[in-house]
């Protein structure tokens, strides 16, 4: 830090940053476009010009671009200098020469950074009389809508898409005032981070195509903080609703987790909430009943000493799982997760709770200078992490730039020095991943062989880690190379996960992390899971699934937000329901399991619920109702609640009392009683319109705002307009800052934590106990007439809820079975041949795909996307041409 | 007869000197001398001492530019030297003569520059339209490789240098040194921020020197004959000879190598033979399109970096475009502005937006649609494109003819608006 002088006033500024960053961190309004807190400076738009003076005697000064000028101690600048003010207005005038005056019909209107900056500079009159340049817009897929005429050529889109996210198919074409930002031809944007363009673009060139289907202005949305439910990373999001329809998801900044960006599954998966498949009514044996009747029925069914069996869910909140567990008793509560997955999940949680390594947040991953990924395709199972990993591989180039005294915020200059230089990322995976292009070394093998490589690396790093018997020279050599690089790292991170349902993989990753710590390194470990609350469920504890089928016999089975047909063999689930006394199902989307319910209870989705999810980082994060559910709908925990509980806080307290490791969950967000100046935090922005008119066709009396007994948020516009604790931040909005870039106003230093600390509370940190895992698997041996069938994750389609969003469904792959060409040749099959496999006694047919990356003897099917989805994988199966 | 080291051996028919002919007139002597015993540091010092300033337009001292390159065992490699042969400045055709007439002189100069900074690879980045120069350079490069002046362990000195000819896709921006580097890397020819300077992080992030063709062509002579000799060539402290040119309605448009600081009047009246019959002189752009107009009162200005700057313009490339009284100054300014607007890379707002707007205003004026207030807008824009306001020198260069035309030919602009027509049009 150092002192700089802004308009004569001495202010403290971070001298490792530029003047724009400094001014914004000080809360000053200085307009900008091309600069982005996560992407640094390039000096293109020239909007942030200020006057800089050599010293206190210099009265003339010269204009400099704040974003391109270091905040050197004793720097003297003026934002208010008339020449600087006039220059900034002229920049906007230049942009406005061609910008259409279509704000009233532009989707960006009302939350447009260009509007904000235009107002900020004072430019308000169009002096040109010439026609504007126009473009042809492109079809860019189901998520992003293109309107090039609005472009102001700030280059943020291509910088994000290509440099930051590693995409290729969006580019800048042509020169002068006709630069075109788009694809070579119409087509779906290939990057799974394309949705961020909607927020990265300072105006309406790239807008949310799903929002367009049910458009609402930002100021008309009811908004609340939520957590993405489409993988285990727990990205923070803001959802917006109007008229009972969930309209969109935008990023909610959390410096430890998602920062400024989301993946497209997280941004666009929300549409399942509006699905026609939603269960809107309680049903008793197929007949619609009222919510109150359903409550009575439920009471009758569960009381009177009947034997209850509860089946929990990794996609339901901690509170709902807890309420069920409490209702049926711990001894009758089962994890509704397939055996292999459950074992992997519990192994992962066990590994995380005993590791001496730091549990990596996404921020930690991003700052790691060496990466080892063992067997997990995070680009598909935890996509946002892939974006962090791309940044992690830049660490080495940061050092190179620092040597040349290039400040790290000088983005283009740093990238120029870096060229193809990347920090090492070692990637061991069974199939192709979307990180292959940045891997220093790729190792393709079956999960057991990857685990063996991991165990071997651990041993090479520290001799107290168990040695792997029978290693080939080749793998030993690879392990040694990787070990040497990992040991020379400053902040290495080891990543694996549960997608392969392989305990050895997880334990190998834990061993590497432990060996690094034993060697005195500050290592971190990340183990991801495919679903949003698997870690929470495993922490809570449940009986393993294999005992569930026998226990269900003659019992009342309660299934919580879980389609068992996705997770277990059809025959087994049929038997379970067939043998049960009766079945109660709580869920929000109709599926095969809900079809088996005697009593079906309509549950709310995340958007209509309060609750807590535990991310793979062990971070408990609260999500809040965006809008009150329809009268018949209730949160699952509310349906199942103990009668002593009246609100979420009661559930939380009971949970904390019962499960010590879950006690901190209470602190994930302020309780319902929290008030600012006597008021709750309003979900509706100060410009929310139509409050008195929305229901005027029914009654001219303004309805009483719905009460919210569960949170410190209110369903009104009224409340103190000061920054609430971050966990309660319903939206980012600040006077003069209507776009999402208003987040600047909620950070004490730009890019750092929200004031008061990022939301969420970590349930476990590195531990001093534990020991190396010793269960090293035997080498993978391909079989003569069988293939090891493994699940392949797909960002679009593998996750259950998001696959009900039309855009996600559109991009999901068709079912397939993949193997390498040698395997196909052996079977005399060619691409798209129909093959037949047999799993758990059932035959399935799938078209063949050739995947050159797969090792010999291994075949893959897309997780959750084939008729075989209930079968336990990995499994050995014969593969033959379908007759 | 003053010495003309750069052009004296170019035959009248402008056929290129082949290797044998070049060597017979002293070619590669400087190179042999340098590799035979000079250190790179000594080489840099000679060029520093010679006072050679860049001939591409900016006039930066060449030796000083080289001295910013990291040297020695710890310096990053490969290092690069690049000959900027993307001669795109309107009215400028001096490098073309040097490359067509004496390609080995450039190759030797570039190789010497390479030696001076311990470069590993050299590029000649040549304008796409210069096909004849490309042919001749290609042949000369082959000869130079054949003779062992390029490649591994040159003349058994231990120094190795590969040299490649790169044909530009063609954009004005490719002549800006960092735009050139981006283009050479296969990227958009957008300029880069400085610092870091190319000497530190240039081509592919490695130390790189970019010099103009004429600058480099001087190097062999400086090395062979010494700094003092080079200084003696000039009429002023700006050392050496200069290729001067004239185009426009003069009697003998052309290009001449003359002592630095030859006056505009001498160039115009003696070498170019004065104005064509029936037209009168009104003004000139002394060094290409991106320099301010000079007029009658400036004719005795010596054409060197300092004097032209004191007169309110820039020496630029030293090849002047002459405006006569039968040509509309507004039309000329409009044409130049249209060129710059067309060539803006589209990176920074004052350039891509402002040039496009100025082009529209000037075109409207020429079409008889000028409006009250247009001159204020143009005047504002020309200040808006000042150095430092924009990302690179393109828009400031565009401002020079515009701002000076508004100053010297204001009445002509006003007439366009007043009469709602171009008075030079029938």
Task: Give a quick set of tags describing it.
heterodimer; A: 883 residues; alpha/beta; Ubiquitin-like (UB roll); Dimethylsulfoxide Reductase, domain 2; Barwin-like endoglucanases; six-stranded parallel sheet; globular; B: 426 residues; Rossmann fold; de novo design (two linked rop proteins); 3 domains; four-stranded parallel sheet; 42% helix
Question: Mind explaining what this structure looks like?
Answer:
The complex is a heterodimer of chains A (883) and B (426). Chain A is α/β, with parallel strands linked by helices. Among the domains of chain A are: 2-96, Ubiquitin-like (UB roll) (Roll), CATH 3.10.20; 342-536, Dimethylsulfoxide Reductase, domain 2, CATH 3.40.228; 787-881, Barwin-like endoglucanases (Beta Barrel). In chain A, 25% of the residues lie in helices and 18% in strands. Chain A is built from 25 helices and 37 strands. Chain A has a seven-stranded mixed sheet with strand order 14-13-25-24-23-15-16, with helices on one face. Chain B has 426 residues and is α/β, with parallel strands linked by helices. Chain B has three domains: 19-232, Rossmann fold (3-Layer(aba) Sandwich); 243-324, Ubiquitin-like (UB roll), CATH 3.10.20.600; 329-419, NADH-ubiquinone oxidoreductase 51kDa subunit, iron-sulphur binding domain (de novo design (two linked rop proteins), Up-down Bundle). Chain B is 42% helix and 11% strand. Chain B is built from 17 helices and eight strands. In chain B, the strands form two sheets. Chain B has a four-stranded parallel sheet, sandwiched between helices. The termini of chain B are far apart. In chain B, 59% of the residues are buried. The interface between A and B is large, with 42 and 38 residues.
